[in-house]
């Protein structure tokens, strides 16, 4: 086995986390970050609720924050967690929606402990080929790999899909066997972003396709499943954004009870990005509206960070069931 750079950074891969999540019937939260305040809130919230955590970076985040800086930010976050927060929660650094072998390799070489190769926009055979190439490289370093079958409606980086292509359960066994992936993202009706369903205010959203999830579980017993596009789009923050000058009409997400149900199944990882974005935007708008003369970024980023931390504690406790499981 080649040297594991991520271990030197104090990180773990997702293997043990998922094993415990499967046994304990909860899901590990995977929160996206692009900047220091988000990272502080994620680590602070997970340390406070004693939850394992996957901190994840998209290719867009890597471009935004700089790949070298991000790697040291993750390392710094681990040290802050151990030394200052006195917490030993397991932390996994994961590439979200990697779309090429080169990007996945680069992240592994930078010290990521887990990567996603999202070949879902390719044909089935090309998805297998690309995913296996990443798995073969990653496993030399004991880095875990997430694959994807099926397409989520909504926006994945620059790729926009109008409709879901639900995962075909008949394919999952063959895909996992031929690629060697460690976990699989499936499409059961979740979608990325803050506008997940076209419904009018007050109308209920269509339920997730638990039948597909159950069929996948039957064919892959004990295998970790991942849910993307799993923000609830918390209405309190949407209302706050609209109250303080924003315009987010009909923003709607996945009801928390459905996510709770999924977390008790083989779903071991739940991805949340949009909810964090909404919280920060709501708080920043509030400060700007209530204190228009304020111009110190700490005065608006600080409250945004605090509110995000609260959201994370609440998610881990009430939705994912990961609180207290570190
Ligand atoms: O699934 C997408 C994540 O929310 C990351 O979004 O590509 O805008 O960083 P991003
Ligand atoms: P949301 O847009 O629902 O937060 O999903 C995030 C995600 O799936 C990141 O990969
Ligand atoms: Zn995603």
From TrEMBL:
Q: Which UniProt keywords apply?
A: Glycolysis, Lyase, Metal-binding, Zinc
Under Enzyme Commission nomenclature, its number is 4.1.2.13
Q: How is the cofactor bound?
A: Binds 2 Zn(2+) ions per subunit. One is catalytic and the other provides a structural contribution.
A GO molecular-function descriptor: zinc ion binding
Catalysed reaction(s)?
beta-D-fructose 1,6-bisphosphate = D-glyceraldehyde 3-phosphate + dihydroxyacetone phosphate
**Where Zn(2+) 1 is bound, by residue?**
97, 192, 228
- From the UniProt record, give one GO term of the biological process aspect: glycolytic process
The cofactor(s) it depends on are: Zn(2+)
Positions annotated as active site in the UniProt record: 96
> To which pathway does this protein belong?
Carbohydrate degradation; glycolysis; D-glyceraldehyde 3-phosphate and glycerone phosphate from D-glucose: step 4/4
Enumerate the InterPro entries for this protein: Aldolase_TIM, Class_II_FBP_aldolase, FBA_II, Fruc_bis_ald_class-2
Residue ranges the record marks as coiled coil: none
Q: Where along this sequence does the record place binding of Zn(2+) 2?
A: 118, 148
User: Which family, according to the similarity comment?
Assistant: Belongs to the class II fructose-bisphosphate aldolase family.
What function does this protein fulfil? Catalyzes the aldol condensation of dihydroxyacetone phosphate (DHAP or glycerone-phosphate) with glyceraldehyde 3-phosphate (G3P) to form fructose 1,6-bisphosphate (FBP) in gluconeogenesis and the reverse reaction in glycolysis.
Q: What is the designated name of this protein? A: fructose-bisphosphate aldolase
Please name the source species.
candidate division WOR-1 bacterium RIFOXYC12_FULL_54_18
């Amino acid at each position: 086995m080649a040297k594991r750079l991520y271990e030197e950074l104090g990180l773990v891969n997702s293997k043990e986390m998922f094993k415990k999540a499967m046994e304990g019937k909860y899901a590990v939260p995977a929160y996206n970050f692009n900047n220091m305040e988000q990272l502080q809130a994620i680590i602070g919230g997970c340390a406070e609720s004693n939850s394992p955590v996957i901190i994840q970076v998209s290719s867009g985040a890597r471009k935004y924050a700089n790949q070298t800086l991000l790697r040291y930010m993750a390392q710094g976050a681990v040290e802050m967690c151990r030394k200052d927060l006195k917490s030993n929660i397991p932390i996994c650094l994961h590439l979200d929606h990697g779309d090429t072998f080169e990007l996945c390799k680069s992240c592994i070489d930078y010290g990521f402990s887990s990567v996603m190769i999202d070949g879902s926009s390719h044909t089935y055979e090309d998805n297998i080929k690309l995913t296996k190439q990443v798995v073969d490289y990653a496993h030399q370093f004991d880095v875990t790999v997430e694959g994807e079958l099926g397409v989520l409606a909504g926006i994945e980086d620059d790729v926009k899909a109008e409709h879901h292509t639900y995962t075909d359960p008949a394919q999952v066994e063959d895909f996992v066997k031929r690629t060697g992936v460690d976990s699989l993202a499936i499409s059961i009706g979740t979608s990325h972003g803050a506008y997940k369903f076209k419904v009018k205010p007050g109308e209920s959203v269509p339920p997730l396709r638990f039948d597909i999830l159950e069929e996948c579980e039957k064919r892959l017993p004990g295998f970790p499943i991942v849910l993307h596009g799993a923000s609830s789009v918390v209405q309190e923050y949407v209302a706050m954004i609209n109250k303080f000058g924003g315009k987010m009409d009909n923003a709607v997400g996945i009801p928390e009870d459905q996510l709770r149900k999924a977390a008790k199944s083989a779903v071991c990882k739940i991805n949340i990005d949009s909810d964090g974005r909404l919280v920060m935007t709501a708080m920043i708008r509030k400060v700007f509206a209530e204190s228009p003369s304020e111009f110190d970024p700490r005065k608006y980023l600080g409250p945004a960070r605090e509110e995000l931390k609260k959201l994370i504690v609440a998610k881990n406790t009430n939705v994912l069931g990961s609180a207290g499981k570190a």
